[in-house]
Design a protein that fits this description.
Strands 1, 2, 3, 4, 11, 12, 13, 14 and 15 form a 9-stranded mixed β-sheet that branches. A 4-stranded mixed β-sheet has the order 16-17-18-19. It has 287 residues and is an alpha+beta fold. The relative contact order is 0.18. The longest helix has 12 residues. It contains 7 helices and 19 strands. The protein has 3 domains: 81 residues, Pseudouridine synthase (2-Layer Sandwich); 133 residues, 2-Layer Sandwich (Pseudouridine synthase), CATH 3.30.2350; 55 residues, Archaeosine Trna-guanine Transglycosylase, Chain: A, domain 4.
Amino acid sequence: MKDFGIILVDKPSGISSFAVVHRMRKITGVKRIGHTGTLDPFASGLLPICIGRATRLAGFVLAAEKEYIANLKLGEQTDTADLTGETIQTAEVPEITDGDLTEKLSGIMEITEQIPPRYSAIKVDGKRAYKMARENKDFQMKPRVMQILDFEFLQHEKGNIQYRARVSKGTYIRTLSETIAERLGTVGTTTELRRIASGNMNICDAIALDDLNNENWQNYLADLSQIFCDYPQLILAEENVQNFLHGRRFFVDFSDTENALVLNEENEVFGFASIIERKVQPKIVLG
């Protein structure tokens, strides 16, 4: 069986994404492992784990849009923008109807930039923002370009709102919750956060971390051809698969593209290539 690939882990709340990677190293016996898209310790849900040579694919997974379900508590704001922080502000919670949500948040999908939370992993002058925040250092976070691709309120009652959002890479749901609260005339903080999708990967296909062990983990390697099915697919006969794996020059009848998913006739993925004037140039080789 393969000793590399991507496993879709359902991360439980209460542990960090790095702790999941640490556990996966013990389970698989593979040192070269990385996650794709940090989930805060309080958050749960889909955390794609790249194992072995598949870590070369991490950039493609990180670039994918993400989808979350979040719970927003109105009337209280914390320094971390989630339930793990210290309360820094409280405010009265106005009566909110369905009409208020529709009216006051009608432009939510027009937001194109955010100022990330101070408690985030973004580097400021070479240092992690959350470390500087814990040390009470004075620093400024710069706005970042982002996009809300889809948004839906699921329910709201007694100052609590649950919503679903599909967003671009680099979007902070904690910040989005604060923006929603502000537009409703109060303050707020994210009390629950669950990632339910990332690109073509869905939480329905994920495996609980506690259900993985050193005997079964290879059974849960995801189908890479499905994860990257949105890319042009270059299907090669065995001879050209070997040419690709060994970096030999060869030509194909294929349109120019920066990123073509390279497969064999049995649908096994071998990497990515760029194709210019029919010439195949390997970019990522998994063999």
